[in-house]
Amino acid sequence: MGKGLEYLGLLGVTQVSPLGERAAELLEQFFSGMHNADLATLRRVDWANTYFIEYRLFGQLSSFDFDNLTRLVLLAHDHCLRVSIGSLSSKHLCLLIHARARTGSIDQRHPTIEGALELWRRYHPIEATYGYQPGTEAVPREAANVE
Length: 147
Known about the structure:
The chain is an alpha+beta fold. It has helices spanning 3-10, 18-30, 39-44, 68-79, 113-123, and strands at residues 53-58, 81-87, 92-99. The chain has a domain at 3-100. The chain has a three-stranded antiparallel beta sheet with strand order 1-3-2, with helices on one face.
């Protein structure tokens, strides 16, 4: 039993589908612990759904300085789960989480991040990116003089 599923048990959630368990593990890592998620929202999720898990999120998602968007994308690839983001209002988002497999047709599979990046670079070479300089592909935050 993973930490996400264990936390759902502490909340009194008794019906959890295999997809619900996988989604809970993704969200547990996304929030750096389910205790950081909104408890009322966690209780409203239909964890027993076998087709999709819908999680309503307050706030924004971003790609770097507050890296929750990047973490969500990386976790989706690691957990082999398709995550779509929809708008509920100006400050509320809806995460729809669907199970996928590593192989199959486009609507059945979800690649690893390495596979997705390989495909991306095939059509979007790094040399064509903004500000590209050879040797700067993976500069640690400390080396980039970022405060």
